[in-house]
Design brief:
Layout lengths: L2 H4 L13 H8 L6 H4 L11 E3 L4 E4 L13 H27 L12 E10 L8 H16 L21 E8 L5 E8 L2 H11 L2 E2 L3 H10 L1
Parallel strand pairs: 3-4
Antiparallel strand pairs: 1-2, 1-6, 2-5, 3-5
Length: 218
């Protein structure tokens, strides 16, 4: 477990009994390299991750899939696959956002998942599968961090823990050349968030001065 996680207030019965990275490796999620994922925010205008000193971490939405949704089985499966791919990308982004500054935290320090929102693209007025499409995102989060709908659950239970379980909204009816855009909020220990903000600020990607410092000290 992460060093900050070990000192957290999470009750014993809720604590994970596995490393998040073991599941990431088992699921074949590629976290990439520092050079690929740690960049300057210059010119982007929006952050991918925001740290709050309370410990809440906000991840911006990202689009997945290439087709608008309807209620056919094939189209819903396409959306679910796209949503799962977004979850993998967000897990990768969160890993580098937490670890790049060397404060000592990583994904094993995620305490729990707070809230997800899935915005599903469909111009079909009778579309009713927004929650089903968003499950591709939510259930991947269960698989990695723990939850009763993940790949490691049995009979709706995950013996490893439940830090991937989250409150969620899922809504359809948007236009766009993609299937879904999910976003999510997670919680890390307050002490870790304060360490990160004190060392390099609350924004990821990094502001230019911090990016150069972090890259030099890597």
């Amino acid at each position: 477990m992460g060093k900050f996680y070990e000192d957290s207030i999470i009750p014993k019965s809720f604590r994970r009994n596995f490393s998040v990275y073991e599941r990431i490796n088992d699921l074949g999620i590629d976290l990439g390299t520092f050079e690929e994922n740690v960049t300057s925010i210059q010119g982007t205008g929006l952050a991918g991750v925001i740290f709050n000193e309370s410990g809440l971490v906000y991840l911006s939405g990202q689009s997945g899939g290439t087709l608008q949704m309807n209620d056919t089985e094939e189209r819903v499966k396409h959306g679910q696959d796209g949503a799962q791919n977004v979850a993998d990308n967000m897990i990768k982004r969160l890993h580098w956002a937490i670890t790049c500054g060397g404060e000592g935290g990583d994904l094993d320090d995620v305490l729990y998942t707070v809230k997800a929102l899935g915005m599903v693209v469909s111009t079909d007025v009778d579309f009713d599968s927004g929650p089903a499409v968003t499950n591709g995102f939510s259930f991947r989060w269960h698989s990695v961090f723990g939850g009763g709908k993940g790949d490691y659950s049995q009979n709706g239970l995950d013996s490893g823990g439940y830090s991937g379980v989250h409150a969620r909204s899922a809504i359809g009816g948007f236009t766009g050349k993609f299937s879904i855009e999910p976003e999510i909020i997670v919680a890390i220990p307050k002490e870790l968030s304060i360490e990160i903000i004190s060392n390099r600020g609350w924004i990821f990607p990094l502001i230019p001065e911090v990016f150069e410092k972090i890259k030099k000290n890597k």
